[in-house]
């Protein structure tokens, strides 16, 4: 446990010191989105990496959190700090209710069911024009503020987002090392064996599905108040695939791997602006490559790669 705490403190210091190195400019804005995507990737990794339950609809929960928080503040004048937990509560309840029937499915049937859920949510965003603004989106969402401190620039938003991001990372690291985390891994390895050991697999899967949705909703609310505008295009199927790619590339069952995957996949579009129309093909290619050549993801594959290089150098030196 002490080792995990030291690892988290080292990670937190790097994150909090990053603006001192990358201060100002467009890169700060990208790092804000790294924080949001890290929260989403960690949330999906709880479900996929630890519990072994795939979801292609998490962009929908992200979108519901963004829209609920945006509508309550921009349309009805709610305080944003009240709108965010209410949105998370609604999303968590919805995920819990949906999770009971959906999580009876396994494998590609579960993938198709969550894909259908994400598409339904996306259609609702587009069609409820009076409420969400439809394809044109919802504008006028206020920035978050604490007293006279308004989070209205990238520097302030960076520390706001990463305060929540680090809290989510710490919570999930502790959860992974707890009895619940061990039960999730048992369900992932063999649901039948987990049931024999006394784990209520069905309830546990629904609970982690709801928890994952709540974290996604929180990220959505932060996204809405950072951008001050949301539209359905941000919450479609492509983004669900992107989230899945982040988790697999970073490393299934690794909280810090989720950060690596989120950082890579957030920065990658900036390097591939000329190939914007082919982004889904590039993500698919990365996903296939990681599964074939680095199945443990970056968090496990990179140390192994460094060890191989070191052994080859030692072999060449001895020769």
From TrEMBL:
Q: CDD domains given for it?
A: TM_PBP1_LivM_like
Task: State the membrane topology.
Answer: Multi-pass membrane protein
| Broad class of where this protein is predominantly found | membrane
**Gene Ontology CC, one term:** plasma membrane
**Transmembrane regions:** 33-52, 59-78, 84-102, 109-125, 158-176, 203-223, 243-268, 280-299
InterPro entries, per the entry: ABC_transp_permease (IPR001851), LivM-like (IPR043428)
GO MF terms listed in the record are: branched-chain amino acid transmembrane transporter activity
Q: Give the record's keywords alphabetically.
A: Cell membrane, Membrane, Transmembrane, Transmembrane helix
Output the superkingdom of the source species.
Bacteria
Q: Does the keyword Transmembrane helix apply?
A: yes
Instruction: Decide whether keyword Ribonucleoprotein is in the record.
Output: no
User: What is the annotated localization of this protein?
Assistant: Cell membrane
Q: What is the name listed in the Swiss-Prot or TrEMBL entry for this protein? A: Branched-chain amino acid ABC transporter permease
What organism is listed for this UniProt entry?
Oryzomonas japonica
């Amino acid at each position: 446990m002490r080792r995990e705490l030291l690892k988290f403190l080292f990670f937190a210091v790097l994150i909090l010191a990053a603006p001192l190195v990358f201060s100002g400019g467009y890169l700060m804005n990208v790092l804000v989105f790294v924080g949001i995507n890290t929260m989403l990737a960690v949330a999906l990794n709880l479900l996929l990496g630890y519990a072994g339950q795939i979801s292609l609809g998490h962009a929908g929960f992200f979108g519901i959190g963004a829209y609920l928080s945006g509508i309550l503040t921009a349309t009805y004048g709610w305080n944003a700090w009240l709108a965010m937990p209410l949105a998370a509560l609604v999303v968590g309840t919805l995920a819990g209710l949906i999770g009971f029937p959906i999580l009876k499915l396994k494998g590609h049937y579960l993938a198709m069911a969550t894909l259908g859920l994400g598409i339904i949510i996306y259609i609702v965003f587009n069609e409820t024009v009076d409420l969400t603004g439809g394809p044109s989106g919802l504008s006028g969402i206020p920035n978050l503020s604490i007293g006279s401190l308004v989070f209205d620039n990238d520097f302030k938003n960076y520390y706001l987002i990463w305060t929540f991001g680090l809290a989510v990372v710490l919570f999930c690291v502790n959860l992974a090392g707890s009895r619940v985390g061990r039960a999730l891994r048992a369900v992932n390895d063999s649901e039948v064996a987990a049931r024999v050991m006394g784990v209520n697999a069905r309830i546990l899967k629904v609970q982690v599905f709801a928890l994952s949705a709540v974290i996604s909703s929180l990220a959505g609310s932060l996204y809405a108040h950072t951008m001050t505008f949301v539209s359905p295009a941000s919450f479609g199927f492509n983004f669900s695939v992107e989230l899945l790619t982040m988790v697999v590339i970073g490393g299934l069952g690794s909280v810090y791997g989720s950060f690596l995957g989120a950082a890579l996949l957030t920065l990658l579009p900036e390097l591939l602006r000329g190939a914007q129309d082919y982004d889904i093909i590039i993500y698919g290619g990365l996903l296939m490559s990681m599964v074939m050549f680095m199945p443990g993801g970056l968090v496990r594959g990179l140390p192994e790669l460094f060890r191989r290089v070191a052994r080859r150098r030692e072999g060449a030196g001895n020769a």
